[in-house]
Amino acid sequence: MDPRAAFEKFADGKPCLDIDDLSCAVLAVFGVKFKKQDLRDLMSQYRRQEGQGIVLEAFLALVDERRRVFGERDFALRLFSALDVREHGFLDLRCFHEVCQDVCRPTAARATEIFHDMDRSKSGVVTFSDFEAYLAGDGK
């Protein structure tokens, strides 16, 4: 979604985005759900001190900056998005196994093992950060 349109849709007539609005707007623009802590960091970085949220100009700057970051990680993001068929912004074991079964049956036999290797926090979900670290060979 176009950043300006996302801002207008989720600000819903308000002059700025609060953290919940920001979460929806960045999901609409990037197709990836940001972690709550990442959203808090973005709010701190882009919110005007006197303001209660992020105004349009700051949101557009945020999107430009994130696009540069994601541009460097575009391949990983596209892979992650392809696996996230339900568009939740994360992968769970069941969904990951189904995608492996549909796309590459030999991989499906090892889907559980692969998933657990990717799930660094052992929370039962794989975030984009987890996925990116897995692709980079980070075994943490």
TrEMBL record:
<dbReference type="InterPro" id="IPR002048">
    <property type="entry name" value="EF_hand_dom"/>
</dbReference>
<keyword id="KW-0106">Calcium</keyword>
<dbReference type="InterPro" id="IPR011992">
    <property type="entry name" value="EF-hand-dom_pair"/>
</dbReference>
<feature type="domain" description="EF-hand">
    <location>
        <begin position="106"/>
        <end position="140"/>
    </location>
</feature>
<protein>
    <submittedName>
        <fullName>EFCAB11 protein</fullName>
    </submittedName>
</protein>
<dbReference type="InterPro" id="IPR018247">
    <property type="entry name" value="EF_Hand_1_Ca_BS"/>
</dbReference>
<dbReference type="GO" id="GO:0005509">
    <property type="term" value="F:calcium ion binding"/>
</dbReference>
<dbReference type="Pfam" id="PF13499">
    <property type="entry name" value="EF-hand_7"/>
</dbReference>
